[in-house]
Specification:
The protein is an alpha+beta fold. 62% of the residues lie in helices and 7% in strands.
Length: 765
């Protein structure tokens, strides 16, 4: 074996070397870290996001007023009584209808689970055609847990339905919807999360052909996730967390944890297959793949940090959780992983599966050091032959295809999905929701005006509320009835306004705008000391959209600029930094195009078990941008690092491109297949928002690992030639984060001469 060059400067090489020399200490420190993080986290407990923290704009102010006053609004429920189509003659004024209303009131009161039951004859909640009426009431106890107590009420309503076949008697509300969705889809998320690990393990078994080698990445990812769960509990006392942040953390943690370990382990195996002894192979893996992992990890962390700039608590929680799990996985990959591999040695091949990977190790150094690899991919070798022979044509075709795929994104429409858009017509309660909205436009999701005054019962405030109710209807924003609920002790009143437009959010938002910009200033706005923020589902959707739109520019600038700077400093090449950003943006754009085509326009939606719902859920585009920009850097950094490594060894740029792409093809394919499979699991869930997220992530990763890294990247680099390594002299003042590691080749492999640098270029160690 050759002598190792002593010029080892990189953090990854030093960390890997220390861990390999102090194997048990490194493993012990990692285990202690995981145990301490979980223990301290459990002791600290989790602080969850409050409604007032999750929401922005007027919606957030309204929630804050209610929280400050100590008012916990109960979960409201509604029973719809409606004459069936075949009995159009039956009206709410008929005795049979009145009997049914009385039976419903008696039945729900008899459960002892409800309070404040109101009759439609008192509240005037009877439709214009007289065929429909609403019995309304509140669930006793906390609203968050009302779904656990609503079943007796639902059964009582079902019994009344049996005695009145001429009517449709159905219940809907926060508690009943939560119970229905939990029963129907509650296990979806757990099944998806639990099945992700076996799927990843199965793919790794195929990739490595050995049980121990497949288990190592999964165990690293799981321990990183466990440690991060504990850290999230601790950090939640500064930045409260929610369930969404935990799910995103698990997804990201599994993806990067497995990826980083996969990159490291593949390089170590490759070096051993090339004739290196285990110790030397591990040192080379630490200095090369370890460095790529640190560059990638820091870049991904920067991308995740972009979510902190949204100002939206849910995004900040997701960003912080994702950032932490990436950092933990990165540290684990360059510290405890080398120690584990050093302990295992050749035993990492234990549990080989012969029919998957016949033991045909290529021990010739020639293949591994002349642009080939013991794991060369015949497919990608053939693709590269075509791309490098015709780089201009390959670039035009591949870029043109991605631009065409991205084109539908120009017409992207975002909104919070309505109940029928989110769940389709698979559940009876969705049909009930539609019937209520049809008979009482906006009645199922009214705007909620939270009025706070020094004395809510003063003549001025009472008169203003009365004027507001009247003008809400006369302005055309509502058809009524406009209900008021006063909390005397807190001097707060809640005004409920059904919005014209109902489940049509575009029309409902116009009605909301009339309330906020015309009705409120002319009524409540004229009374000194009165606050009257308007909230509700429609208002929440609009406020969230507005806040998200205002966050796009700062998040985009932060992520792109910092990623550019990191790539520039890590690779000491202006060209590499620019092309990295452009290719990643093209990948994100293609993912947007697929989302719009499938879920907004419905093109091919049936192929993924979805349907065109006319919009993309509000939070997804920004979320996808940050996640995809971060994850796609994994592949990009790994491939470019390998190309640059070959270039620094003296290969021509064209040979270095072929070497880098072909030798990384196997590991990137395996990593991409794992990510696509895990994300695709979420694409099978029943909720449209989860389908959109799963399909968007899976499609983007697939495009990124194939068209971007296999065709566009080599085509662009082949066309640029030596200009790939261009680094202006005036930028030499910038910090050097390249930390190139160099190992002498075996004595049988003479080192090729270093080619001269081009003007303004910095090549070499």
């Amino acid at each position: 074996m050759g002598k190792r060059d002593t010029r080892v400067r990189g953090i990854a090489a030093r960390a890997g070397g220390w861990s390999a020399r102090h194997r048990w200490a490194a493993v012990g420190i990692w285990v202690l870290f995981v145990v301490l993080a979980m223990g301290l986290g459990s002791a600290a407990g989790t602080v969850e996001l409050k409604d007032s923290e999750q929401l922005g704009g007027e919606t957030g102010r309204a929630a804050a007023i209610a929280e400050q006053a100590g008012i916990d609004e109960p979960a409201g429920e509604t029973v719809l009584l409606q004459a069936k189509a075949k009995d159009k003659g039956l009206k709410a004024t008929d005795s049979e209808f009145r009997t049914a209303v009385a039976a419903v009131i008696k039945a729900v009161e008899g459960t002892g689970k409800v309070t404040d039951v109101t009759s439609p004859y008192d509240t005037k909640t009877i439709s214009k055609d007289g065929r429909s009426a609403l019995v309304q009431f509140d669930m006793r106890g906390e609203a968050d847990t009302a779904g656990e107590r609503v079943e007796p009420v639902l059964k009582a309503v079902e019994e009344v339905q049996k005695d009145h076949e001429a009517l449709r008697i159905e219940e809907i509300g926060g508690a009943s919807m939560n119970k229905t969705f939990d029963d129907a889809f509650g296990d979806d998320f757990q099944q998806a999360e639990f099945s992700a690990v076996p799927v990843a393990l199965g793919i790794l078994l195929v990739a490595f052909g050995a049980l121990v080698a497949a288990l190592v990445p999964v165990l690293l990812a799981i321990t990183a996730i466990m440690a991060t769960m504990g850290l999230m509990m601790i950090v939640s006392h500064v930045q409260p967390m929610d369930d969404t942040s935990s799910s995103v953390m698990l997804l990201v943690g599994l993806a990067v944890g497995v990826d980083y370990c996969l990159f490291y382990l593949r390089r170590e195996r490759e070096e051993r297959a090339a004739g290196r002894d285990p110790e030397t192979a591990l040192r080379i893996a630490a200095a090369t793949s370890g460095r790529a992992i640190i560059v990638s990890g820091v870049t991904v962390c920067v991308a995740m940090a972009g979510m902190l700039f949204t100002g939206i608590a849910t995004f900040k929680a997701m960003g912080l959780a994702s950032l932490m799990v990436v950092a933990v996985a990165m540290v684990g990959s360059v510290t405890v992983l080398p120690a584990v591999l050093s302990l295992l040695g050749k035993r990492v091949e234990t549990g080989r599966i012969p029919f998957l990977h016949p033991d045909k190790r290529r021990k010739s150094n020639t293949g591994a050091r002349k642009g080939g690899s013991g794991n060369d991919s015949r497919f990608w070798t053939a693709v590269l032959r075509v791309v490098l022979a015709r780089p201009a044509i390959s670039l035009i075709v591949a870029a043109g295809a991605l631009v065409a795929i991205a084109a539908p994104a120009l017409g992207m429409k975002t909104q919070n999905l309505t109940l029928d858009q989110e769940f389709g017509d698979s559940l009876p309660i969705v049909a009930t929701y539609e019937r209520v909205n049809e008979a009482f436009p906006g009645g199922s999701d009214p705007a909620e005006v939270v009025v706070r005054a020094d004395d809510v019962n003063s003549p001025e405030v009472k008169s203003a509320i009365a004027d507001f109710r009247a003008r809400a209807v006369s302005s055309g924003a509502s058809r009524g009835p406009v209900d008021v609920k006063v909390h005397d002790a807190q001097n707060i009143a809640f005004v409920y306004v059904p919005l014209v437009g109902g489940s049509d959010l575009d029309k409902a938002e116009k009605s909301l705008t009339i309330l906020r910009d015309e009705v409120r200033p002319a009524t409540l706005g004229k009374v000194d000391g009165v606050e009257a923020p308007i909230s509700g589902q429609v208002a929440g959707s609009k406020d969230f959209n507005d806040q998200l739109v205002s966050a796009v520019a700062p998040v985009f600038v932060f992520v792109v600029v910092f990623a550019f700077v990191l790539m520039l400093l890590s690779f000491r090449s202006l060209t590499i930094a620019v092309t990295s950003i452009v290719l990643n943006l093209l990948s994100v754009g293609a993912a947007y195009g697929i989302l719009v085509a499938v879920f907004q326009h419905g093109w091919g939606a049936s192929l993924v078990g979805a349907e065109g719902v006319g919009a993309i859920i509000t939070w997804l585009p920004l979320f996808l941008f940050v996640i995809l920009f971060g994850l796609s850097m994994d592949y990009h950094v790994f491939v470019v690092s390998r190309i640059r490594e070959a270039r620094l060894r003296g290969l021509t740029t064209r040979d270095a491109i072929q070497h880098g792409v072909v030798t990384t093809a196997g590991v990137i394919t395996s990593a991409a297949v794992i990510m696509v499979a895990v994300f695709a699991i979420f694409g099978t869930l029943s909720m449209q928002s989860m389908k959109q997220m799963g399909v968007g992530l899976a499609a983007a990763v697939l495009i990124d690992a194939t068209i971007i890294r296999g065709v566009l990247l080599p085509a662009v680099m082949a066309l640029l030639g030596e200009r790939n390594w261009y680094f202006p002299k005036w930028l030499n003042r910038l910090p050097d984060l390249s930390h190139d590691e160099s190992f002498e080749e075996p004595s049988t492999q003479p080192q090729p001469p270093q080619p001269p640098a081009v003007e303004g270029e910095r090549v070499g160690v």
